[in-house]
Write a structure and sequence with these properties.
Layout lengths: L3 H7 L6 E3 L15 E4 L11 H11 L3 E6 L13 E7 L1 E6 L5 E6 L3 E4 L5 E6 L4 E6 L14 H7 L18 H4 L4
Antiparallel strand pairs: 1-2, 2-7, 3-9, 4-7, 4-9, 5-6, 5-8
Length: about 180
Amino acid sequence: MPGHAKLTELVERREPLTFRFADDGLVPNNPRWPMLVYTGAVTLPDGVDPASVFEDLFSTNGWGDSWRNGIFAYVHYHSRIHEVLGIARGTAEVRFGGDKGEVLTVKAGDVAILPAGTGHQRLSSSSDLLVVGAYPPFGTYDLCTRAEQHAEALRTIPKVGRPERDPVYGSDGPLLQAWPEG
């Protein structure tokens, strides 16, 4: 696992791509804050477990409960917590924002930060896809996939507060400007 000094060397400052998605009736998305994508933000050197780089980076910035896997192949969202996805290996076509959202190609080194309510679905991927996900220190993980969950999600999404730190850049990261409080 890389130490803190090494982590700093592996992170490249990137302006985020921002995406806002409308409520499509199934996926509410987030009415307040955009999804952020940092393309090529993390260098993954040979000889280092790429997933551990993301785990350490997210943990250093207060985002925990990390997991390693892929992205579900069905439309889903989380109504009670934000999520960060670090692409540790491979590539994937992911539709963000629900059926009327946007399809993005994500690749190793990319990071997507999804505010609560943001739909996501893997449409295709390379066979070696490995994603590291993590969550801010507050909120409760849930998995929403059904229309019956929509009304409750509209009540819970606005209650999920802004994280204190950007999962990639810490206390001075772009997330803090893109997701204003109040």
